């Protein structure tokens, strides 16, 4: 499998490129509208054709590139079926593999950051979106979030995977790129070390995070698979919204 980890600095978002060496078809996990040209350039450089975009959830800190990538390449848009977005081509469901050539994606419904959040397993790699970050996790106070649900998602699904499973998060704000299930189980300050659910809920309740500055633009745009809002302040329009200071927790 061809694999690339790509970074969008405004929202500190990781986009993941997975390609099938046999068919030349590629998949992008969590593409960002700001970085479409970069992503398409990398796909072209590798001699691939974009077949599918796949989002982990409805994002609050950036606009997905899914719609514009479909317009430019004819690729299909895949999102968690539970979100029931009418603009999508494929609804992803736990227990039903998504295949792009020889690349097989297994979806895990991991609510807590948002109610519809999914993580994705592909071989030795686990793409955790915002459910599990390196030494952290996504916030749980918006979009149907629930600390109790996130605790169960991580401890009963993600932490039951092999310790050597590589963890590729949706964001990192300190330049870290990859972790492992074993590392997060052992030392994640919010969820690791055998923390009880009550302690995790107390940690999340005490964060007192500011209201995300981009959420009121991002969520409606992402419910349309990546429409840049028309009411953005003028200074934001060139970038479809500058998403700094929208930390996800």
Automatic annotation (TrEMBL):
Report the SMART domains cross-referenced here: Lactamase_B
Q: Which InterPro entries does the record cross-reference, listed alphabetically?
A: Metallo-B-lactamas, Mito_Persulfide_Diox, POD-like_MBL-fold, RibonucZ/Hydroxyglut_hydro
Q: Which Gene3D superfamilies does the UniProt entry name for this protein?
A: Ribonuclease Z/Hydroxyacylglutathione hydrolase-like
Keywords assigned by UniProt, alphabetized:
Metal-binding
Segments crossing the lipid bilayer: none
| Metallo-beta-lactamase domain ranges (all copies) | 12-171
Q: Which PANTHER family match?
A: PERSULFIDE DIOXYGENASE ETHE1 (PTHR43084), PERSULFIDE DIOXYGENASE ETHE1, MITOCHONDRIAL (PTHR43084:SF1)
Official protein name in the record: MBL fold metallo-hydrolase
């Amino acid at each position: 499998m061809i694999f690339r980890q790509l970074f969008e600095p405004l929202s500190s978002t990781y986009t993941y490129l997975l390609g099938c060496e046999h068919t030349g078809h590629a998949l992008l996990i969590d593409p960002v509208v700001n970085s479409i040209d970069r992503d398409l350039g990398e796909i072209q450089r590798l001699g691939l054709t974009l077949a599918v975009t796949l989002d982990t959830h409805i994002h609050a800190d950036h606009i997905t590139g899914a719609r514009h990538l479909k317009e430019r390449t004819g690729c299909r848009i895949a999102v968690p079926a539970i979100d029931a977005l009418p603009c999508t081509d494929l609804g992803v469901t736990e227990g039903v593999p998504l295949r792009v050539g020889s690349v097989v994606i297994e979806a895990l419904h991991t609510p807590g950051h948002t109610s519809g959040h999914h993580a994705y397993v592909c071989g030795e790699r686990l793409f955790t979106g915002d459910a599990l970050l390196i030494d952290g996790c996504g916030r749980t106070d918006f979009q149907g979030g629930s600390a109790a649900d996130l605790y169960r998602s991580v401890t009963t699904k993600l932490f039951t995977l092999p310790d050597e499973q590589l963890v590729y998060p949706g964001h990192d704000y300190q330049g870290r790129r990859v972790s492992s299930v074993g590392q997060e189980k052992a030392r994640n300050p919010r969820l690791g070390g055998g923390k009880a659910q009550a302690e995790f809920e107390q940690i999340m309740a005490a964060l007192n995070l500011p209201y995300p500055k981009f959420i009121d633009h991002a969520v409606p745009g992402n419910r349309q698979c990546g429409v840049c809002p028309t009411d953005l302040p003028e200074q934001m329009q060139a970038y479809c919204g500058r998403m700094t200071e929208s930390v996800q927790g």
